[in-house]
Amino acid sequence: MNFAVHQAENKKIAEIQASEIVIHSTEDAMNLMGDLYYQGYDGLILHE
Question: Please, which domain of life does this record's source organism belong to (predicted)?
Answer without folding.
Answer: Bacteria
